[in-house]
Amino acid sequence: MNEMAAAGARALELLIELDPDLVEIVVRSLYVSLSAVALAAVIGLPLGALLALARFPGRRVVLVTVNALMGLPPVVAGLVLYLLLSRSGPFGVFGLLFTPTAMIIAQAVLVTPIIAALTRQTVQDLWTEYREQLGSLGATPLRAVPTLLWDGRVALFTALLAGFGRASAEVGAVMIVGGNIDHVTRVMTTTIALETARGDLPLALALGIVLLLMALAVNIAAFLAQERAARSQNA
């Protein structure tokens, strides 16, 4: 019990003192996760809008695939990417394995289906609601995409927050493709796993507190966005 109390006290000291190693890991984690969400948004937003409004051969297959990938096990994604990025793989020539770039790609693979699926639902609901109005203005479904995305910005912002939550909490895929190399690819989740296995609880606890605060901040941001949207609709 005394050891746990001492570890907790030391973890608070690391946070208050802004321990350099802790700050480095947190900054790298934010860089990787935010970059992954940005990449996933570039792919997922237009893909979701396309699935909502366009009709093309194989649409149902793509739709089912996107929905299925929302539950893709991270270790499976990491294994596939490892095989693709390894020296013997088709993309090994780029030397991306065990780099932050590989971790960004891994997180983007996990986050893109979430953003695409939520975007599809949002755009589809808005098109159903405003179809006649937009049609009277001469807007085709695809030409209405920018308007629908803007109108659904609050819901889409919540989708991006959900994607960030998934990315920042990921450990399996980034461990496989990043290697958890000190000062290179070590992020919060992999460090927590490593330091706990080593028995070095203060750093693990400090990073755990940061992760919990980040999760709380994401939920507060999503709640405030939804509250603001509700007030705007009632005004």
TrEMBL record:
Keyword RNA-binding recorded: no
GO biological process: transmembrane transport
Subcellular location: Cell membrane
A Pfam family assignment: BPD_transp_1
GO cellular component term of the entry, any: plasma membrane
InterPro entries associated with the record: ABC_perm_TupB-like, MetI-like, MetI-like_sf
Superkingdom per UniProt: Bacteria
TM regions (residue ranges): 30-54, 61-85, 91-118, 201-225
Primary location group: membrane
Keywords: Membrane, Transmembrane, Transmembrane helix, Transport
The keyword Phosphoprotein belongs to this UniProt entry's keyword annotation: no
Domain ABC transmembrane type-1: 26-222
Membrane association type: Multi-pass membrane protein
Family stated for the protein in its record: Belongs to the binding-protein-dependent transport system permease family.
Protein name as it appears in the record: Tungstate transport system permease protein
Organism expressing this protein natively: Caenispirillum bisanense
